[in-house]
Structure formats: C-alpha cells, structure tokens
Amino acid sequence: MGTSTFIAIAILPLLLLLAPYYIEPYQLWDPVALNDKVQGERQTQWCNMGWWEETNSFPIAAQALGEKLLDLAREGGYEGGGNVLDIGHGAGESLLLHLSSSSPPKHLYGLTSLRSDMMSALSLIDRYTPEKAKSTIIKLYPRSAQFRPSKDLDHPLNSMKGFMGEQPRDLAYLDEDQLLEESDGQITLGRDDPPPYDLIYILDSIYHYPPSLVPFLNTLKPVLRQDKGIVVYTDILPPSVGLPWWKAWFVSYFLSVPLPNLTQRPSSLKGYMELLEKEGWKDVEVKDWSKNVWPGFAKNLIGRGGKWEKVGRTIERVEKEGWKFVAVRARKGESGHLGDQRVNVSNTSM
Asked: For each of the chain's 350 residues, which pLDDT tens digit applies?
C-alpha cells in the first residue's frame, strides 16, 4: 500500500465527521433523482416523502403531500390570497403550488438555505406561473431558517425589516447583503413595514431547523397576522420509547437534525399539542399521517433497487420502530395572554 493511499484511508473517518459541518444533506440530493418523468407533463423536482394514496408515482405522491398540507391550512380558516411565506421550498414546486391555487397569494415569500434551490425556484416560477398569479409579488431569500435578530436584517422572519419591491411580479431576491437585479432591471422601494403573514407553510423540513422546534416556532409569531395568521407544517416524531444516545447522535449529526428534536420531544401526539398550547398557540391540530407516508414511500424506494432499496428498507424499520409522520396546524394567539385554545387530536389520515 502506497503512502498516499494509506494517508487517504487514515483521514477518511475525519472527512466523514467533518462533512456535515460544511455540506447540508440536501446538497447531495439531486431533486430530479426520484421525480420520474410523467408522460405529457414537465419534469418536476419535488423533494418530500409523499402522500401515497392510489398512486405509486413519486412526483404525484409528492405533489399530493404538498396539496394535503395546503388543504390543512384551508380547513383552519386560510382563505387563500394574502401574504404567504414558504420556508424550505426546495427547487420551488411548493411555490408553484401556491401560485396555482384558486386564490393565489398577494405576496409570496420563499426561504431556502441553498442558493441553488433559490435559482431553480426562480426559473420555475418564471416559466410556469399561471396567468391569474402574474400580479403576485414574489421574493426569494437564500437564508437559514434560523433568524438571528442582531445579524439577519434582510430576513423574512425579521418583523422590523422593510420589504423591497412592491411592484407587480417583482422577482428580486437577496443574496447575503447584496440585492441582485430582477429580470427587468428595475427595483422599487416599497413601504417600510413588512406585511404580516396570513400563512406560513413548511413542507417536510421543520425537524432540521435550529435550535429546536419550540424556539423556532416562537420566531414565527412576530410576523404572523394577529389572531388570524396560521402556520402549517409536517414533522417527524421519534418513537415514544425514546432513542438510544448513539442513534440520536448519529441521526442528529449526519442528517442535520437538532439533538433536542430527537431527545426532548413529548412521548405522544397529545403531549406534542399541549406543548404548543403552553407556548400560546391556539386552535392547535395534529394529525398522524404515517400510514399514508411511510409504507408507500418505502415501497417506491425498494422497487428502484440498488442504493434506493437500502433507503427503503430503512424507512420500513423507521415505521416499525414507531416513528410518526405528523401534520400540524396552529394559529397565532392574542397578544399578552394565551387566549381560548382548542386542541384537536386526530390519529386518522382523513
């Protein structure tokens, strides 16, 4: 064995340990990889676990999950239109979902940590936005979901930030401290106060956001419309029996999941909802969507063979161990007190 080969083998464990510090898991994911081309349709770039009801197609199932979460918001009183923030939108498929609804948002803001996703999303909505949504004002931000008040002045979760570009179809976006030029080269200063969001939509990503679930949700309250703004998201809950420390560390480190999201979660859906209730959220509802997510997702991956089969077998074990895939809806309560709170528990997929 040559010296260079020996050195390479010796430092490989170190490289594996350091990689999560510099590379997000989704940077290694080609969003087209699982999106089988549907005949007569455009190539999609969905990246979620899917809602597997009467389909074995990944892009159809992935879109169905996105629509299911938007339906959950409507069931809670979101009437469409208004101001919407989509956090963790990936390549932009969920942004197009909002724009394609019967009542598109007046303002649509997108937040993703990857610049490559932002650029893909920008291209997608430029090409496929329906005519009825052409007047929607769109802003995309390549930012971490974690808002730091002292540093992140240009962040959609900054309640004191002045939003730029109040002209129709403003596709300007921010990259670090530089405002990049929009498609027609015109930038217009808008009003100083940001519009409060009627809906914050987070599809299949909230479990990644630091520092952990409750502190992150608390950063959403200042930018939600008072006593009306709704947040909807999907989440993954570890088994109620808990995780061995080594498994929790492994998942946390290599999949970029804050450790408290694995070790400090309530042991039941009711406990989960009570936690949100104590934090001042009202009209809280949590649905267990596991049976329409895990089995279909695992079957699809196993059927692909190779490395995907191994991932699919892992998903099968995840289901057997009692991990839950849940959908959550909560409304911002009144200022100063918790207000009347109604908590609904549902273990059905509906």
From this structure: 444 443 333 443 433 343 344 444 444 457 788 999 878 889 999 999 999 999 999 999 999 999 999 999 999 999 999 999 999 999 999 999 999 999 999 999 999 988 989 999 999 999 999 999 999 999 999 989 989 887 888 889 988 765 443 334 445 444 443 434 333 332 233 343 456 999 999 999 999 999 999 999 999 999 999 888 999 999 999 998 888 888 888 888 778 888 999 998 887 899 999 999 999 999 999 999 999 999 999 999 999 998 899 999 999 999 999 999 999 999 998 654 333 334 445 554 44
| 3-state SS string for 180-223 | ECCCCCCCCECCCCCCCECEEEECCCHHHCCCCHHHHHHCCHHH
Q: How far apart are the first and last CA of the chain?
A: 60
Length of the chain: 350
Paired tokens of 122: 């920008």
Q: Which residues contact 153 (CB under 8 A, 6 or more apart)?
A: 161
**pTM tops 0.90:** no
Task: Count the neighbouring beta carbons within 10 Å of the beta carbon of residue 18.
Answer: 11
DSSP line for 83-105: EEEEES-TTTHHHHHHHTSSS--
AA identity, residue 93:
E
3-state secondary structure of 263: helix
User: CA-to-CA distance for 196 and 223, rounded, in angstroms?
Assistant: 5
Return all residues near 200 (Cβ < 8 A) that are at least 6 apart.
Answer: 84, 85, 87, 220, 223, 224, 229, 230, 231, 232
DSSP 135: T
Q: How is residue 182 written in tokens?
A: 């929009």
